[in-house]
Specification:
By secondary structure, the protein is an alpha+beta fold. It has six helices and twelve strands.
């Protein structure tokens, strides 16, 4: 699997991911640590960013289908890209059924489960100046709107969600949001063997002159922020340990151990 986090701050939606992913092949599953798992999808009057977690072979095909469906389409509803993603996943399942001798949908579900060919998508864009974040589970096939200022998918999502809950994300600047997202991904990579490689960042900004802009930052971007992450982590954990020691001392004052 992997880790994808999405944060909605004051002026943008920002996605961050690791770059380790799994590819399925005839000889089994293989891993790579240099995968770009965030893509841009362009409509006639807007853009979206899509991040993938899980089996890269199938998620890559789903994004390919979605990109083609979106070309020339109008972003005219808050669910436009989410519904296109659902259609793309439906088409991908039809392709898989044909490839597996016209199997039934129940047989296809069993194949996905047994083969480990599962993936999730996170979709972010703006509609009428309102940020829209959806997640889509391949097995279920339904894009679900995420109302919170942060969300996470992938094997490391419980850890990332816990870390992100510490921050007041809606009030953050773009730089603060990027730092927070990178910190969450870096912390997940320390404890989840399925997450690794470089941390990648992308954003879609609130519309200007009717259209929103999206970009995937090159890997060296936010260099100063990246360099400060280890020191920040050390300082934060040191402060936490000191406060925890103070709390324990206060609560146990005058109590002798049994």
């Amino acid at each position: 699997m992997t880790i994808i986090v999405g944060l909605v701050c004051e002026k943008c939606v920002l996605l961050a991911s690791d770059s380790q992913t799994t590819y399925s092949s005839s000889t089994g599953a293989t891993k790579r640590n240099d995968t770009q798992k965030i893509s841009l999808v362009t409509l006639r009057n807007g853009q979206a960013i899509i991040a993938q977690a899980g089996d890269a072979t199938l998620s890559g095909r789903a994004i390919e289908i979605l990109t083609e469906m979106a070309r020339g389409r109008d972003l005219n509803d808050y669910r436009t890209v989410a519904d296109l993603a659902q259609q793309a996943v439906r088409k991908l399942k039809d392709e898989l059924r044909i490839a597996n001798c016209d199997c039934t949908i129940e047989q296809l579900r069993d194949f996905i489960e047994q083969d480990g060919s599962h993936f999730e998508l996170m979709i972010a864009y703006y509609y009428e100046r309102e940020p829209q974040v959806f997640t889509l589970d391949f097995k279920v096939g339904i894009a679900t709107k995420q109302p919170k200022p942060f969300t996470a998918v992938g094997s490391g999502s419980p850890i990332a969600g816990y870390i992100l809950s510490w921050f007041d994300i809606p009030k953050m600047t773009v730089q603060q949001c990027a730092f927070t997202a990178m910190y969450a991904v870096e912390e997940v990579k320390k404890v989840d063997p399925y997450c690794g490689g470089s941390t990648r960042v992308a954003m879609v900004s609130a519309p200007k002159e009717g259209q929103s802009g999206a970009r995937i930052f090159p890997e060296p971007s936010f260099g100063k922020l990246r360099a400060e992450l280890p020191q920040f982590d050390l300082a934060a954990k040191t402060e936490w340990r000191i406060k925890m020691d103070e709390l324990i001392t206060k609560l146990t004052a005058g109590e002798a151990p049994e």
